[in-house]
């Protein structure tokens, strides 16, 4: 049974509503019921009140849409369970007594919701209340919908918004019913999932293989229309849009080139924001390629299915009136604060500032020739690529497991740079160019640290060609790394290898020292220091958050530095 961060299985729906209300001064709970109401109920007098709801587990739906300009109240059931007739009726009574001139129930097309809200409606009417019900079915999954009709899913949130804006503007019950019914018919939604979800205390309702995704699932984990191999985001979005707009699909949405739509890219609960952004971009591109204008795009978690890793796309064809209703202000906490403007992939980019040209380096130093530089750099690149997997494995114990990938990016960047131009032979220019390259291409903290080291070292080497200059350059580089990185020798970082090597390189300052022997001693010192980091307690970097008992391997950064120095030799 999957882990859940709840107090109790039976109380999770109540606890979630209590948490929502405690954090929002504009909401109130109805005593004895899972009902959330606007705190300013007197403002409903003389207006149409809107009531929606359904099972819990779809947060922020539905209580997150209670507020001025959207719902007046929301009724929640237990997880994936329709709310009781008694709670729906209690909410209707409260709204009627607050002076609402009519009450509209907005219900997703599920049997339980229709039955419970419908029964409450009949009871309320017998008490004299003016109550109507709109059933939303926006699911585009099934090509031949059965008797139950299309399921109500994320598009229902747009119906809440349109109805709420109309009610706030003083529209009557008949007008609201007419306009939201028309809007619902010009709307469609389709879901895609990479994983199942599980009700607290229960096992997942179905299983998906590691390489499978399912098209057209419902928001309770109901079966979709087909399982397929996991596709790249662009292909997955194209598959969804084709299915949603296929004229042979009885539940399709008709889109004609030139029409305007509101796009909702909805996280079904467990998809990362990174993936959601990728899907949103793909959806905008694919719609634009069809000649569709995306008048507004809403991206976020609007109607979820607990922790399901998946996404749904909703399209509503809009005219200027509908768009004004979508743009109308609301205080509902779950409605996104989106700018009033279209979505497009064709936005003009801000031009990047040109690098400020520095003074030409007037160097006459006798640095190694370009051919020698290329040979050394090629050995460094080969070494980093050879130890990529080893560095990743070492990094998994204390970091995010990408140290090898980061250094491999550096190696590929250096190779590409050497193919495009011969590297400068002057040491200062060489290190300065490498610093710029790694800062741009390497990424991660390592890229910045290497950039700091090389920039400071290059500055120290300027105008010098003596052997002692290299000892000074390494010291300058280490000082810069410590100044900004915050680490020190003994903190189990790449500095341990560098500082050990630097100490050995101080021998270059001794007149008559053999530079090759000094360099060999420096490399050996770095290798010994790298190996010794396995016995250190981390004092900086991600590893400092890990118990020292779990750090049984040398630091990957220190190992990488030692390997680079060995390749230089």
Automatic annotation (TrEMBL):
Keywords: ATP-binding, Cobalt, FAD, Flavoprotein, Kinase, Lyase, Magnesium, Manganese, Metal-binding, Multifunctional enzyme, Nucleotide-binding, Phosphoprotein, Transferase. One of its GO terms (molecular function) is ATP binding. Its EC number is 2.7.1.28, 2.7.1.29, 4.6.1.15. Its cofactor is Mn(2+); Co(2+); Mg(2+). Substrate binds at residues 55-58, 108, 113. Residues 371-569 form the DhaL domain. InterPro entries: DhaK_ATP, DhaK_dom, DhaL_dom, DhaL_dom_sf, Dihydroxyacetone_Kinase. The active site is at 220 (tele-hemiaminal-histidine intermediate). GO terms for biological process: glycerol catabolic process. Pfam families: Dak1, Dak2. Homodimer. Interacts with IFIH1 (via the CARD domains), the interaction is inhibited by viral infection. This is Triokinase/FMN cyclase. It comes from Piprites chloris. The gene is Tkfc.
């Amino acid at each position: 049974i999957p882990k859940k961060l709840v107090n109790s299985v039976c109380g999770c729906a109540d606890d979630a509503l209590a948490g929502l209300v405690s954090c929002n001064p504009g909401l109130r709970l109805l005593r004895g019921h899972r009902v959330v109401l606007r705190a300013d109920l007197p403002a409903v007098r003389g207006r149409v009140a809107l009531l929606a709801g359904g099972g819990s587990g779809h947060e922020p739906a539905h209580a997150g849409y209670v507020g001025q300009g959207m719902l007046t109240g929301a009724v929640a059931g237990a997880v994936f369970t329709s709310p009781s007739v008694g709670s729906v009726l209690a909410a209707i009574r409260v709204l009627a007594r607050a002076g609402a001139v009519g009450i509209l129930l907005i219900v997703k097309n599920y049997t339980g919701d229709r039955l419970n809200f419908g029964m409450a409606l009949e009871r309320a009417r017998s008490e004299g209340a003016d109550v109507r019900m709109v059933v939303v079915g926006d699911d585009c999954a099934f090509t031949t919908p059965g008797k139950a009709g299309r399921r109500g899913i994320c598009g229902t949130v747009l119906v809440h918004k349109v109805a709420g804006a109309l009610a706030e503007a003083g529209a009557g019950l008949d007008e609201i019913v007419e306009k939201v019914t028309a809007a619902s018919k010009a709307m469609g939604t389709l879901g895609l999932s990479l994983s199942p979800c599980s009700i607290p205390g229960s096992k997942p309702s179905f299983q998906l293989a590691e390489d499978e995704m399912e098209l057209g699932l419902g928001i309770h984990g109901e079966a979709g229309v087909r399982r397929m191999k996991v596709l790249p985001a662009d292909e997955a979005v194209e598959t969804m849009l084709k299915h949603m707009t296929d004229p042979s699909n009885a539940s399709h949405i008709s889109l004609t080139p030139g029409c305007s739509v509101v796009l909702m890219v909805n996280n079904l609960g467990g998809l990362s924001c990174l993936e959601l952004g990728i899907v949103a971009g793909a959806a905008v591109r694919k719609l634009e390629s069809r000649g569709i204008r995306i008048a507004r795009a809403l991206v976020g978690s609007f109607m979820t299915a607990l922790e399901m890793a998946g996404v749904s796309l909703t399209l509503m064809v809009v005219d200027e009136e509908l768009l004004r209703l979508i743009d109308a202000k609301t205080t509902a906490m779950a409605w996104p604060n989106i700018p009033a403007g279209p979505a497009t992939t064709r936005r003009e980019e801000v031009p990047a500032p040109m690098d400020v040209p520095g003074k030409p380096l007037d160097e006459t130093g006798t640095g190694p020739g370009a051919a020698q530089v290329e040979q050394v750099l090629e050995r460094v690149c080969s070494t980093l690529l050879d130890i990529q997997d080893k560095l990743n494995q070492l990094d998994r114990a204390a970091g995010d497991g990408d140290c090898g990938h980061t250094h491999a990016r550096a190696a590929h960047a250096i190779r590409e740079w050497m193919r495009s131009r011969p590297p400068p032979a002057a040491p200062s220019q060489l290190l300065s160019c490498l610093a710029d390259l790694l800062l741009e291409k390497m990424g991660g903290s390592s890229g910045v640290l290497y950039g700091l080291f090389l920039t400071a070292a290059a500055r120290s080497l300027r105008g010098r060609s003596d052997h002692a200059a290299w000892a000074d350059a390494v010291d300058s580089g280490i000082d810069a790394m410590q100044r900004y990185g915050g680490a020190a020798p003994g903190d189990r970082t790449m500095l341990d290898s560098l500082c050990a090597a630097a100490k050995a390189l101080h021998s270059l300052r001794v007149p008559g020292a053999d530079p090759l022997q000094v360099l060999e001693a420096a490399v050996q010192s770095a290798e010994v220091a790298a190996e010794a980091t396995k016995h250190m307690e981390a004092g900086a970097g991600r590893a400092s958050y890990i118990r020292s008992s779990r750090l049984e391997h040398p630091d990957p950064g220190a190992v990488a530095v030692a390997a680079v120095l060995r390749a230089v030799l």
